[in-house]
Amino acid sequence: MRRVCSLKAKQLVSLSIIFIAIPLLLIVGATLLKDNKYNIISMIVVLLACVPFFLQFERRKPHAREIMIIAVMSAISVAGRVAFAWVPAFKPVTAITAITGFKMGPEAGFLTGAVSAIASNMLFGQGPWTPFQMFTWGIIGYIAGWLGKTSLMETKIGLILYGIIAGVLFSFIMDIWTVMSYDGAFSWTRYLQAAGTALPFTIAYAVSNVVFLLLLTKPIGEKLERIQIKYGLIGNKVKESAR
């Protein structure tokens, strides 16, 4: 009973950080600080993203290999974004982040998305958009982690639907920053205009997500599962088999 209460408390803390603390931090950065402190905001987002990940570990400290998986998946994500830099809005970042979430859990998915954004922007250029990209890719990985606990993401239809939804979600959240970047205020009129203007890119995001998910989920997912089983690491499949 005590352990169940402890797990619920940790989940509550994780949800509060991801869906309350980080969004509030982004709003403060875009309005009160007028996007002038985006480097500091980005680092705080990374630190906050680490908290839910480390809260996964019940009664033990995480091993270096567990943290290394997140680093490797983030590096693959960055390399993929660089490799497809010549194709606008066609990147594997969302797919890699989602696959990490599917196999390693929501918290790992969020951390991978956040780290991938700030790391790849060292090459593509840091700016006030970086914290929003970190949050957006993080949310995509977090949602993927919860969906990974079901059998839906083991089907092509599930991957296609998720790829489309993730593409739309990424564009819609980033459009919030686009609107607020003008004067620090939000306007539904400008938001709808921004969403309409970004429609071709939104479609490209969705298509790229579907393509990369269909191509990469099985090979990368199988490798992650083997690593989890071999070393007894935290992940959706491992946790389910241990019940």
Automatic annotation (TrEMBL):
Species for this entry: Candidatus Kurthia intestinigallinarum
Pfam family, one: ECF-ribofla_trS
Keyword Transmembrane helix recorded: yes
Gene3D superfamilies: 1.10.1760.20
Membrane-spanning ranges: 12-32, 38-55, 67-87, 129-147, 159-179, 191-216
Name of the featured protein: Metal ion ABC transporter, membrane-spanning subunit
Keywords recorded for this protein, A-Z: Membrane, Transmembrane, Transmembrane helix
Entry annotated with the keyword Iron-sulfur: no
Recorded GO CC terms: membrane
